[in-house]
Structure formats: C-alpha cells, structure tokens
Amino acid sequence: MNALFVLAVILFILMILVGGKKGARSFIAIFLNFSVLFLTILFMLDPQVNPIILTLVACAVISCINLFYVNEVNIKTKTALAATVISTSILLLFIFVIVKNAMIHGFGREEIEEVPLYTLYIGVDFVKVATSVIIMSTIGAIIDIAISITSPMREIYTHHPTISRKDLFASGMSIGRDILGTSTNTLFFAFFGGYLTLLIWFKELSYSLGEIVNSKIFSAEMITILCAGIGVTLVIPITSWITAFYLVRNREKKEDLKT
Amino acid sequence: MNGLKHIWKKVSLKQYILYTSLLLCFTASIIFVNHNYSFYDHPIAEVIETNIVDQTEKNDIYNNQDYLFTQHIIATLKNGEDKGQLIHLKNQYSSSGAYDQAYKVGNKLFVSINTDTQEHTYLTGTIDDVKRDMYVVFTAWVFIFILLIVGKKQGFTSIITLVINAVLLSYALDIYLHTSNISLLLICSISAILFTVISLLFVNGFNEKTYAAIVATLLGTFLSLLITYFVMVITSENGLRYEGMPFLTEHPQMLFLAGILVGSLGAVMDVAITMSSSIFSLYEKNPAISIKALKESGLAIGRDIMGTMTNILFFVYISGSIPMLLLYFKNNSPLGPTLSFHLSIEMARALAGGIGIVLTIPLGLYAAIYFINKKRARL
C-alpha cells in the first residue's frame, strides 16, 4: 500500500472524527487547493503567461476556496478575501524587487548538479517564478491571519454597534498582535523543517559563514522566510483597516437610509 | 498624577533609547555589508560597465524558445592585492534565467582572477557568484521594523523567540554533526521540547494556560510522529521517494522524520495555545461553566482552525517544488513519475503535520480541562 494514501486516509478519518461535516469540508479544501496549485504550475509552463498575474489569480481562487467553501459567504469572509488580495499584491511587488536585485531566482549550483541532463533554457521567466513561489508558500498563513482578525472584529462590532472606525481598527490591531507571535512561529518552524537537510548539508561541507550567506540557495531560503514573516505581519493592519472601513461604512449607509 | 507622569516619561525614554539604538544598528549594519570587502578572501568586483556583445535565439527539441546573451563586463576589484584595478569579465545569460542572470552597473560579484594575463594591461577573470549578503541583511531589517511597528511589544517578543529558536536549532545540528553516535531524531526531539517550552513560556508566561498548551503540543507532535513511523513500517515506505529530497546526504528516513518533527511543531504549538487560551478565557468569564459546555465550545473552535492550519503547512512544503517541477515538465518528463519523485516527501510531511494539528485539538481541549479541574479542586 502507498504510504501517502494511508497517511491521507488517517488524516481524513481524524478530521471527520474531530470536525464532523466541517472536517470533511476542510479535507476536501486541501485537495482543491492542491489542484489549484497544480493547475497554476501547468499554466506557468506557457511562456506567454505572466507568472505574477497568474499567482494573483491563483491566490484569489485559493482564498475563495478556504474562505467561502470551508466557512461561508458572509461579511467576514468577504472582507478577509479583500484583505488577502490586497496584501498579496503589495507583497508581490516588494518580493519581486528583492528577488530581482538579490538574484535568488532559478537554481543554485548545488541544485543544478542533481539535474545534469536537462536543458535549462526553457523560456519561463524565473525571476517571476521565484516571486510566485514565495507568495504561494505564504498564502496559507495570510488567509489564516485574515480570517482570524475579521471574525472577532465582526463580533466586537455586533456587541458595540456604535463603535468608531478608529476604535474598531485599534481592536483589530490588538487581536492581530496577539496572534502574530504564534503565526510567525508556525511559518518559521515549517520552513526550518523543510530546510533541515539543507542546513545539515551546509554544516557538513563546512562552508564558511560568508559562503553560506552569499550562496544562492541559503540567501533564497532566508529571504523566503523573512518575506513570509513580513507578509503575515502586513496582513494585520490591512485586514483591520479594511474590516473597520467596511463595517462602519455599512452602518453609515444604513443610517443615511433611515434619515 | 505626578507618579503617572513620571512613569510616562520613563517609558517614552526607554522607547526613545530603543528606537535610537535600533536605528544605529540598522545604519551600522547596512554600511558594514556594503563595505565589508576586506572580510572576504574571495576577490570581489563591482560592475562599472556592461555591453551586450552577442545575442542568439535558442530552440530545443521540446519547442522551448529562449534567448541567450553574452555580456562583456568591466568591473573594479574591491579587495585583495589588486584592489582598485579593473577586471574584464564575460557573462552568458538567458532571458529565462534558470541558472544565470544579467548583471547591471553596481552589482557586486565574486570573481576568480586569471593568472596568465601578462599580455593585457588589464586583468581578466571569471564570475563565481553574486554578493548577496546586503540583500539578506536589508530584508531582515525590513522584517524587524515591520514586526516592531505592527506588533509593538508582541512583535519584539516574537523576534527574540525566533532568534533563540534559530540559535538553538543551529546548535543542535552542530551537536549532531560532531557526535556521530547520537541520532538526529533524538537531538531533534530534545530540541523540540526546548523549543516548545521556550516559545510558549515567552509568549504566554508562567500559568496553567501555558502548561496545558505545552503538554498538548508535546503529545500532539510525538503522537503524529509515531503514527507516521507506524505507517512507514506497515507500508514498508512504499511511495516515499527519498531520492527526490534535495541535498540528501545519508539516513533519509531519519532526516524525513526529524523534518516532520521540527516542521509541524510551530503549527501544533499554534493550535495548542489557541485551544487552551480560548478554553481558559471561557472558564474565567464564567467559573461555573460545565465541562460539557467547555468541550462543545472547544471543539467548535478546533473545527474552525484545523483546515486553515493544515493549509499553511501544505503551501509551505509544496510551493518550494514549483521551479523544479517546471524544469522537469518543460523537458518532457512524464507527469505522474515527476510528481511522485518531487512531491511525495513534501506531501507526506504536510499530511503528517496535518495529523498532528488535528490530534492536538482534542489533546489541547482535554489538557486545558484537566488543568481547570485541578484549579477547581484547589478552590
């Protein structure tokens, strides 16, 4: 039997046991996400398609799956979607500039040794692909933060319907601050777990500090981790602002209708 | 009133000192990485002029179209015996840039100087790599500033926790490499316990909430590791393509399990602390709340977070394989084998992490209830 299949079955059973119907939906969402990711890769094969725009579309679709399918369509998930799309757009710009200047796109010398038979001139813009990779690895965490902020903000608004936009924004920021530490921790450990082999490999070959920091692979992974951290932090003010703006504007609209 | 004013003054002075010293550190480190040439033994050259001397179109048997350029570069050496001299370099790059890049004026490059250049008035050489340290440092500073501006005190604690964890991990790997007879899994297990205790205590302080989260995290991670190991044994590791792991040296199974342990730890901690703090806050709001009500609300919270938490791991693990998959597909590799070769390990990691996350929901719930019951018995 295939080990991956057995692991997937165990995860599915556990999700249903703990989460019931919602658990089943979460499990299906994971496979929908995987399909979107896979489709994105297939589209990237076409040199005519801009990988960055493709990534933006993919991120929006992935956010829709995780927000609207797992949860439901309501004001919380709608504002979370807006926040995710805006944050990823800003991040894409920042990451693109960093990737282009630091030249961390493509493969490192150490990686290329493993694929000697292949032609490397495949016509796909690797600077843009590298930018997409960083965003894609962070999108899960960005969605998580966005929904974790909009949900309680909506609760606060229901309990204090007269709250001002500024106060609502401040409460969103304070919710965000509370989850910031654990979210960055989640990302960092996930990346470290993936880079464990690389770290051991660098240490075994006893590279000097200068060689490690300047090598394409290590600097690419460091910059990925840092950009992921920047991403999950930036989502906090953006989500708080959008949610506060949206909720208060809705209230003002209603008040206008009454008068 | 006076006392209050005094405290305010003190706090703002402290903050003032903090911000000034941060700004000083920032400026000093940026200046340093832009002028640290003498710290490198490898010759470094700064590009001052570039010319494209040749351009060809490249088509291969799989209909991939690309353009190749040859660049003539003049650069000044920044360190070593020939400091200040000009060096002529050649660079070939493609418009896709899978393993090459165009250089611009101002780029700093590591070069090797040719020794047999007596007939020229200038030096010639080859480009070895790009100097990237300033970009890593710059991004790190952007990260620190954004975390401090948005997160304030909590941002500061998370930076400290991250640094401590990174140093600990590096130290643990050193121990592993220098003592050949200790297994990596054992070292990572001990580090995992330390990571958990340090991270959770730092963020949440010494209280029952934290203890419940620590217990749940450790049980959840090790239980998911055990399940993964069990699955590996009963399926005799069928479908796990360790050779697809990059930079593999030896003991792939061990590295795979250690990767699962470290990789899922953060997500499991996140779930554990979310569960225990929400259950404790329900209890604090209403100390008479029944265990049944706590269980119900706890499970509802768990249901909300398990999907998004598992997704975080999926995206982190699988996205990294995108460039390699593109390269293989563009070279007409068959779909199925390529996917299983490059993704099987990453998928297994994500699934194992997901198992840990879901298991931690009931574990966190019962750990919190256990500590609440103990607290009630004391009252």
From TrEMBL, chain A:
Keyword Transmembrane attributed: yes
Residues annotated as signal peptide: none
Keywords: Membrane, Transmembrane, Transmembrane helix
Recorded superkingdom: Bacteria
Transmembrane segments: 28-45, 52-69, 81-99, 179-202, 222-248
InterPro entries registered for this protein in UniProt: UCP031503_TM, YibE_F
Protein name (record): Putative membrane protein
Species for this entry: Salirhabdus euzebyi
UniProtKB/TrEMBL annotation, chain B:
TM spans (from-to): 16-33, 134-151, 158-176, 182-203, 210-234, 254-283, 304-329, 349-372
Keywords: Membrane, Transmembrane, Transmembrane helix
Cross-referenced Pfam families: YibE_F
Record flagged with keyword Phosphoprotein: no
InterPro entries: YibE_F (IPR012507)
Record flagged with keyword Transcription: no
Protein known as: Putative membrane protein
